[in-house]
Amino acid sequence: MLELSRLMLESGWIPPRPVIFLFNGAEELFLLGSHGFMKTHKWSSTVGAFINIEASGSGGADLVCQSGPGSWPSRIYAQTAKYPMANSVAQDMFGIIPGDTDYRIFAEDVAKIPGLDIIFVLGGYFYHTSYDTLENLLPGSIQARGENLFNLVKAFTNSPMLLKESERSNKAVNEGIDDLRAIFFDYLTWFMIFYPRDVSLIIHSLPVAIFLLTPLFLSFPNITMISLFRTVLDLARGNVASCIWCHPCNSRSCYDCRP
């Protein structure tokens, strides 16, 4: 965080929103540091989003192990992280692990602040031992984390979803709470694949429907496996082609934009 603050000062970039660097301790003692900040500090009610930096090892690629409430923090990460490593399944698995982070205080127990929980996951055999030293820090880990964080801080501070506690409460009353998690995962830390939960219900239901309906279609005398496969392939190809054309261009259909 010190290096990130230095970079922000020397780069000439002026954040459109204030950025708080919270150096808190007592995390291992039931998250007392973050709890004290949220309960006693006058700035706690002004926090619109957070990025919690954690480690369960001595380096490696950053893993987004928790995200929320809502889907916009993970969406911003998918759009801006230079070396993305994230998987929505990690959040489901995190509850099984006998560990905890300050994310729980910020996003769940004390407040409902949207944010990310980012951890180092490699070199866990050094973690919490006398061998957890700078010499055993995996090369390139801090550099990659810094570049990701700088992009994230710039994107978070420019996001229209960044709201104070009172603004989030009013929005929840008027528009309802956006508490739906998205589905996201990276491919070899090259890029991210991200889609909302309602879209995932359709995408993930298709293989099940095909599996259940294939025996029914094959029971007809004039239908073979090849013809059925071609039908499904043509349907999928048309849907993929429309997505490739519409979404990157952010275009709208003619009957929407020219009523």
How would you describe this structure to a colleague?
The protein has helices at 2-10, 32-40, 72-80, 88-94, 103-109, 141-157, 165-175, 197-218, 225-249, 254-257, and strands spanning 50-55, 59-68, 115-122, 183-187, 191-195. By secondary structure, it is of the alpha+beta class. It folds into 2 domains: 2-195, Zn peptidases (Aminopeptidase), CATH 3.40.630.10; 197-257, no CATH class. The strands form 2 sheets. A 3-stranded mixed beta sheet has the order 1-3-2, sandwiched between helices. Helix 3 (72-80) crosses helix 6 (141-157). The longest helix is centred in the last third of the chain and has 25 residues, at 225-249. It is elongated. It starts with a helix and ends with a helix. It is found in: Endoplasmic reticulum membrane. Belongs to the peptidase M28 family. Its cofactor is Zn(2+).
Q: Strand-residue fraction?
A: 5-15%
Q: In the CATH hierarchy, what is the architecture of the largest domain at level 2?
A: 3-Layer(aba) Sandwich
Number of helices: 10
Uncertain stretches of 5 or more adjacent residues: 245-259
> What best-fitting shape do the alpha-carbon axes yield?
elongated
Work out the helicity level. Answer: 40-55%
Q: Give the H and E element order.
A: HHEEHHHEHHEEHHH
Radius of gyration: 22 Å
Termini separation comes to 51 Å
The mean pLDDT is 81
Structural class: alpha+beta
CATH homologous superfamily of the largest domain, by name? Zn peptidases
- Report the sheet with the most strands, covering strand number, pairing sense and barrel closure: 3 strands, mixed
Number of domains: 2
Please identify the top-level CATH class of the largest domain. Answer: Alpha Beta
Please list the strands of the largest sheet in the order they lie side by side. Answer: 1-3-2
Q: Give the strand tally.
A: 5
CATH topology of the largest domain: Aminopeptidase
